[in-house]
Each structure stands twice: as structure tokens, then as C-alpha cells.
Automatic annotation (TrEMBL):
PANTHER family membership: BLL4334 PROTEIN, DUF1697 DOMAIN-CONTAINING PROTEIN
Upper lineage: Bacteria, Bacillati, Actinomycetota, Actinomycetes, Micrococcales
Name of the protein described by the UniProt record: Pyridoxamine 5-phosphate oxidase
Amino acid sequence: MTRYIALLRGINVGGINITMAALAETVRALGHTDVKTVLASGNVVFTSDQTDAAALKSGLEHALTEAFGYEAWVVLLDRTDLAVAVDDYPFDERDGWHSYVMFGSDPDRLDELMRAAPDLDPADEQVRRGAGVLYWQVRREVGIKSPFSSLAAKARFKSSTTNRNLRTLRKILDLPA
């Protein structure tokens, strides 16, 4: 049995509204156990005996699309990978800044995003590549209007990337294993 984390992109924003109770029930209906949601931003933690991660991801996306009528995109990882991503966060956490980890199911898309990073103003934001992730820190005043945020929001990245605040990821890791 493996403890997985499914990070859904684009729910409870832009008109796609899903209650966490309905989300959890959809995951349970697939036969997964110990299902928990964290916050209302599409974070689902569950246990599964399924070992084929690609099939598991595909099954989740199909079930969510069918249940909620939208094109579901999931980044799936196990608890160990999430813990490593959080532990390896390379920037000092600073007042007035947001600290994010961007997860991706397509390394080429993360590389494409990373190639844009040298052009960023380090007084406003910084990006660094990690193992299967990008680490991003942005001044709160700049936030979603930053050049990197605007780039990451483009349609070509929606199906394979999602980001989470470091505080949210710690809440996920604080759940019983």
C-alpha cells in the first residue's frame, strides 16, 4: 500500500467548483482508502494498492472529469517525493514573499518554464530547478502579476503543472502517514 498525494489543477477557481466531500467520495469510489482532502484547493491524500502511477493518474483524471464535468488534470506523487520536495526548498522564507513548489508530470514543461527564469527580476521573484519540481519565490506585492506567474498560467502548462504554497504542502505532510 502506498500513500499518494493528488494535486488537482484549477478547481475552485474560474467556475470549477467542487466540494471537498464530493472530491473525497469520488476518490473513495475508485477503491482508494484513508482519503483526506487538505484545504479547498484540490489536495487529496489517499492510500492505494495500485502500483502503476501512470494508470492511477489516468484513472483519477477520468473519474474526476466524469463526476464533475470538467477536464481534470492531476499531478500525482507519493508522500516521500512530497517530503523531499519540501525539505529541499532552496530559498530562505522571508516576510512579504510567497514560497511555492511547482510540480509537473512532464519534465519538458518544467524545463521550458525554467529557461525563462534567467530573465526574471530577482528583486521580485526567483526560480530554481529541483528534482521533478521548480521552486519559486515571489514578492507578495507582485504575486500573480509576476512574469513567471503569467508564463506558468499559459494553456500549454495547465495539463502538466500545478503549484502549491509551502505552507499548504507542510499541512499535507502533517497528516498521519
